[in-house]
Hints:
The protein is mainly alpha-helical. It has 9 helices and 4 strands, in the order E-E-H-H-H-H-H-H-E-E-H-H-H. The chain has a single domain (about 15-230), classed as Growth Hormone, Chain: A, CATH 1.20.1250. Helices cover about 70% and strands about 5% of the residues. It is globular.
Amino acid sequence: xxxxxxxxxxxxxxxxxxxxxxxxxxxxxxxxxxxxxxxxxxxxxxxxxxxxxxxxxxxxxxxxxxxxxxxxxxxxxxxxxxxxxxxxxxxxxxxxxxxxxxxxxxxxxxxxxxxxxxxxxxxxxxxxxxxxxxxxxxxxxxxxxxxxxxxxxxxxxxxxxxxxxxxxxxxxxxxxxxxxxxxxxxxxxxxxxxxxxxxxxxxxxxxxxxxxxxxxxxxxxxxxxxxxxxxxxxxxx
Length: 237
């Protein structure tokens, strides 16, 4: 029998629970600080900066540099494309949902990145994290009915502003709770970045392996839900 967690009388699958998104947000901050601190001084969680740098390079007629930015942008595109294809496919069936498979894939990529020597080209880590962040962003879309992003902060900051405005206007507690939820997401993102920065200065590239701990926690919970409490849930692959 399908068993889903409830919030405000509505059923949500395990992969949409707030705490799952909180952990993934922490990991997103961890990845961002990792690539910026020791992997080329770039942020790989989103692509806005790459588009700006691409435009600036093109404006300066630095065509080689401009073309370089197509690499991370293409990796992000490919991550979104493949995750959407897998998420919506009806050509195969697995005992787990796509969200669970994605976390396992992400952990495998993180493990391989930790094996790279410090002399390896930065682009390997950058492209890999672009790819997995894109898949994570496209896969985990809403936490208990609230649209969410797990790899960057802009939407959470925007949603916090909206919720605060609505809370002052309507005096309804639901908007206060929502603003606190988004502020919490921002806080754990920053916490992930702080921890990553400290560990990167200390153990260099091996620091990426620390992200396996929260990801393993998420994977174990999602596997348990897929195989025990939510077996037969709609949307399972």
